[in-house]
Amino acid sequence: IVIVSARGARDSFCCSPAQTPPPTSAIRLGQTRPFLTGSLPSLMRSSLAPLGLPVSRDRVIASFPKWYTPEACLQLKDHFHGQVSAACQRRNTGTVGLRLSKVVVVGDLYVGKTSLIHRFCKNVFDRDYKATIGVDFEIERFEIAGIPYSLQIWDTAGQEKFKCIASAYYRGAQVIITAFDLTDVQTLAHTRQWLADALRENAASSCFIFLVGTKKDLLSGAACEQAEAEAVHLANEMQAEYWSVSAKTGENVKAFFSRVAALSFEHSVLQDLERRSSTQLQVGDGDLIRMKGSSPESQEGRGLSSLGCC
Ligand SMILES: Nc1nc2c(ncn2[C@@H]2O[C@H](COP(=O)(O)OP(=O)(O)OP(=O)(O)O)[C@@H](O)[C@H]2O)c(=O)[nH]1
Ligand SMILES: [Mg+2]
């Protein structure tokens, strides 16, 4: 890990998958974003997460955030899974509060991936286009049902020439966000390929997939309805949840990321409960072999596949 000041604007943290610094030429390309950055304050905040310091009020999620449209959503229920609520109340969520869940944002150049992330993480909007080179990331801390939880949000380059750098960072994603521009139907068609590329590095069964239409402020009325209808159709084909957002006005941005965080949090807790209840076989005092650490709920014998559903 090398600490560099990439453009003098802010301190940045910079590394590659092999933990080597990027070529300096990548950093010097004036109107572009550097190869890989993550803000130092984010990094410091992330290291504080395990201490359980309070998060800002707008990152506290107490009730399960709702979908954008029931026609293309990953789950319809409006409450946390019973086992998750019980585990949170007992503070029995294992290592979930200590881990970072990886979110990868992909899509064509200029669709607004960086703008979406910056609106959520920094509450800013920049009208000028600065292409992302390679990848960039932000860390956002939440408190969900009383438990600390962090997302590591990876912003990737849409430009073809940077694709090979960006794709090196797809692996290990818990959430894949495929973004397109609501005003440019070609970018919607291309999301199929972006998703296929991301799924080459991740198992579809272990990821939540979102399809996000950006620049909602530029469309209204029938044009917006038409674009959304096409997107919902594709989202169902991709088994993705659909959202329309605007980084410019901020419309739906916080609601969208809250939904992302809540779904991945719930899944992480269920996975953790499952893992802990299915291991640690222990020989008891008498003739019995009993499961150590298994909760009464998990002793009912329900598998994870039935835990995560509506
Ligand atoms: N009107 C409007 N413009 C937007 C919105 N989001 C992004 N833009 C503009 O669209 C352009 C591209 O945005 P970026 O966020 O840099 O796009 P990107 O997908 O990150 O592009 P690459 O990094 O090259 O992959 C910029 O000029 C933004 O100001 C939006 O919600 N509304
Ligand atoms: Mg970008």
UniProtKB/TrEMBL annotation:
Gene3D superfamilies: P-loop containing nucleotide triphosphate hydrolases (3.40.50.300). The keyword Metal-binding applies. One of its GO terms (molecular function) is GTP binding. Its EC number is 3.6.5.2. Keywords: Golgi apparatus, GTP-binding, Hydrolase, Lipoprotein, Magnesium, Membrane, Metal-binding, Nucleotide-binding, Prenylation, Protein transport, Transport. InterPro entries: P-loop_NTPase (IPR027417), Rab (IPR050227), Small_GTP-bd (IPR005225), Small_GTPase (IPR001806). Its main location: Golgi. Residues 286-310 are annotated as: Disordered. It is an enzyme of class 3 (hydrolase). GO terms for biological process: protein transport. It is found in: Golgi apparatus membrane. Its cofactor is Mg(2+). One of its GO terms (cellular component) is Golgi membrane. It catalyses: GTP + H2O = GDP + phosphate + H(+). It is a lipid-anchor. Belongs to the small GTPase superfamily. Rab family. The small GTPases Rab are key regulators of intracellular membrane trafficking, from the formation of transport vesicles to their fusion with membranes. Rabs cycle between an inactive GDP-bound form and an active GTP-bound form that is able to recruit to membranes different sets of downstream effectors directly responsible for vesicle formation, movement, tethering and fusion. This is Ras-related protein Rab-36. It comes from Propithecus coquereli (Coquerel's sifaka).
